[in-house]
Automatic annotation (TrEMBL):
Family indicated by similarity: Belongs to the ROT1 family.
Any one GO cellular component localisation term in the record: endoplasmic reticulum membrane
InterPro entries, alphabetized: Rot1
Protein name as it appears in the record: Protein ROT1
Annotated organism of origin: Hericium alpestre
A GO BP entry: 'de novo' protein folding
Keyword set includes Kinase: no
Keywords: Endoplasmic reticulum, Membrane, Signal, Transmembrane, Transmembrane helix
Length: 180
């Protein structure tokens, strides 16, 4: 998904002020100073959606310079996610796992303020784990993702900034700060 301007993205846990009330979402300036359409990228914005990151035709990735995550939302209901992260391992500090992940599909802005990302079947990810027998493999990624709530602020320095709060495991109903 191509957008030429990249807005700032923050992944956070749910602040008290945004705890779910069940009240329908109000699309006013206090909630979103601009529509969600476009690409939102974390940190140094080296991880971006689009063909420079993932090539689904041969399940390959172009590794970005730094870790991060980007979400794109089109005005006609489609989304795309690009992620690159390292997971530490408390008991085995040298066993750092690299995960690079790409998925797209259709999203839904729910009245209760949540966002649901419904993936298509062609999402995939590559896992690199130096401490297991199969240390580098590619697998399908087709998880439905639910974010409890979202808000777009105007940051004096960064401009428009999307906050995504509380990524919820759809089956266990547990919500955590979204992972990059
Ligand atoms: C995937 O395809 C792209 C574009 O044709 C090519 O540059 C790249 O080397 C391929 N990667 C793999 C792992 O086959
Ligand atoms: C989602 O991925 C799982 C695991 O790879 C697979 O068993 C399942 O068929 C996939 N679902 C769809 C809709 O592709
Ligand atoms: C840490 O690494 C060990 C050895 O590979 C593995 O068995 C364990 O599941 C890992 N723990 C986490 C939290 O990834
Ligand atoms: C919002 O509605 C969706 C769809 O019914 C549901 O899955 C989700 O849990 C709800 N979100 C919250 C925060 O209650």
């Amino acid at each position: 998904m191509y957008f030429t301007h990249f807005f700032a993205l923050v992944l956070a846990s749910v602040p008290a002020a945004l705890a779910q009330t069940g009240a329908p979402i109000q699309y006013v300036a206090a909630h979103n100073t601009t529509p969600i359409y476009g690409t939102w990228a974390s940190g140094s914005k080296n991880v971006l959606t689009g063909p420079g990151f993932a090539n689904p035709a041969n399940l390959s990735f172009t590794y970005p310079l730094t870790t991060g995550v980007a979400y794109s939302f089109s005005s006609d209901g489609y989304y795309e996610v690009a992620r690159y992260r390292f997971n530490g391992n408390g008991s085995q500090p040298n066993c750092i796992t690299g995960v690079i992940n790409w998925v797209h599909g259709k999203y839904q802005l729910v009245d209760n303020g949540s966002i649901i990302l419904n993936p298509w079947a062609d999402g995939y990810q590559q896992i690199q784990d130096p401490c297991v027998a199969v240390s580098n493999f590619i697998e399908q990624y087709n998880d439905t993702e639910l974010y409890q709530s979202w808000q777009i602020f105007t940051d004096p320095v960064d401009g428009y900034k999307l906050h995504l709060f509380g990524r919820c495991a759809t089956r266990r109903r547990a919500c955590h700060p979204p992972r990059p």
